[in-house]
Design a protein that fits this description.
Layout lengths: L2 H29 L5 E7 L6 E7 L24 E6 L2 E6 L15 E8 L4 E5 L5 H18 L3
Antiparallel strand pairs: 1-2, 2-6, 3-4, 4-5, 5-6
Length: 152
């Protein structure tokens, strides 16, 4: 690939990142008038795990998702989506496969979003590749680290 072609690709990727940043900041500022907002995207060195981190200078309510289904009514061992608390961090946990009631729930649920909030700061971390309880704890740790870095 020529150097000119590489530059075109890199410039296009940077333009898309800048567009995502401005659109994300604008949406959060619209929802939180007057609050400061910051957005960053991070990846591990192998690009296996990517997260989007949004910090907003205001408190948010606790996480909720709806509708909230009763897994026993659906004959499931665990809800397909739920909010789980890990200390000060709440995460949306999504099962990768439905597990019938009475069966052991495999350790393959995804932490898709985690949030930590306080009186003047909320940090949200979005990631789609954090599967299993160890990766869930990684998302919690990333959320706590982002909270601390943002001044929480």
């Amino acid at each position: 690939m020529s150097e000119d072609r590489k530059q075109v690709i890199i410039s296009g990727q940077q333009a898309q990142r800048d567009n995502t940043t401005s659109m994300t900041v604008a949406a959060y500022q619209k929802a939180n008038p007057g609050a400061s907002v910051s957005y960053r995207k991070y990846s591990d060195p192998g690009l296996a795990h990517n997260v989007d981190v949004i910090a907003v200078g205001t408190a948010y309510p606790g996480l909720t998702i709806g509708p909230v289904a009763d897994p026993s009514y659906l004959a499931l061992a665990a809800p397909m989506r739920q909010v789980a608390a890990f200390g000060d961090v709440e995460c949306v946990i999504e099962q990768s496969v439905a597990t019938p009631a009475g069966s052991p729930v495999p350790d393959n649920a995804y932490a898709t979003m985690c949030q930590r909030t306080g009186p003047d700061l909320t940090v949200q971390v979005f990631g789609g590749s954090f599967q299993g309880s160890a990766d869930q704890q990684t998302m919690v740790a990333l959320t706590n680290d982002a909270w601390t870095a943002a001044g929480g």
